[in-house]
Amino acid sequence: MIIKNKRELSTTELRKQVWDLIEVGIARVLPPATMKSAVNYDSARRILTMNDYAYPLSKGRIFVVGGGKASGLMAETLENIITPENISAGIVNCKTIDYKTSRIKIIEAGHPVPDQRGIDGVKQMLALRERYSIGENDLVICLISGGGSALMPCPVDNVDLKDKQTITELLLGCGAEIHEINTVRKHLSKTKGGGLGRFYAPATVVSLILSDVIGNDLDVIASGPTFPDSSTFSDAYNVLERYDLLSRAPKTVIDFLMKGCRGEVEETPKTLDNCHNYIIGENRLALEAMAKRANEMGFNPYIATAEQKGETTTIAQIRAKEILNAKYKGYDVILIGGETTPKLPDNAGKGGRNQQYAAVSMLTMQEYKGEWIVASVGTDGSDFLPDVAGAIVDNNSLAAARAKGIDVESYLDRYDSNTLLKKIGGSLIVTGNTGTNVCDIIVYALK
Fold first, then answer.
1. Domain ranges of the chain
2. Predicted TM-score of the model (pTM)
3. What is the CATH number of domain 34-281?
């Protein structure tokens, strides 16, 4: 059971059906489902196959590194496929360490703000090269998923951890999209933006990737540690300028980016011949599984998009208007994937983009004539707050809030959706860490 508080939230039959769809979607993109269809190891011939591409290992060894919210379960699954005795050593950084591995060490690290544990973990990954004399005959498998940018920190020498944490927090709260945030991160790191892949050359590096990025842009997912970087120091500096962060960012950050702009610091790699990257799971897989299940349940589903983005409140308003204007006429389940970006006010309260999206929908959907549900869930189980995956609201939620004398609009204006939904009750979705991360899934169920 993925959703842990279904009993509390299952107040109607339609809600129960929505839970079923959400669980099917998340289950489809868990590492055991995605990796077993992509990875095969022939121990007799010592050949590793990734998506039908063979990597012979007659003279080489296998090492494992990586990081992200899903890297722990990915490591556990990989050991089950390859078997531990065929892995020489491995280290991955993850948000939680509740996984069973015998050869791959899982290190707990900070997210969404990087911490010293993450830095120590990356140092141990890098130390594998010298300790085992990793060379051209060896294969380094890199397990990457969303969250890897924060979980695999390796700041440049000129920028310390505190300053890296400060710039991360500023970027997360300014309304910048993930590719903009990661453009800055890549140019403040030794390993992001292809740096990790370059470090292990001439060894072959094969990355298995769960995508949490709209469009599956490989140089953005986890800040592209094993993929050539298309951005520049000037691009990174321009992001800070665009969001008025130049006066608020640490001086060390600004100074380092300016040195890069002047050509005084080596750019991130633009080619990486030793690296091969495979996306094994992404948002659309979840939506397709949900649509199939909805058909089996007698609904007529429609996948509106797997690439939703934009400011959270604005997008929730737009989607509701589309439904009220009958854009999806004939469909009773609308499925959406992607990741919106909240632009937080100075007095922001508690919550995350999924909770805010659902809470805004209470107001924007109130004119719909009939029963409706909107559920918005982070597939990783954490909607900024670690104990909440997202939220669900329906045609009764706003009335329940009004009956309790709650000023809904004031909570929404200050992005205090978590407090609002707690007061209403029967709204917050709890899954715990799911072991995957492929953006968010949103369900509109209509009757």
1. 6-28+283-446, 34-281
2. 0.89
3. 3.40.50.10180
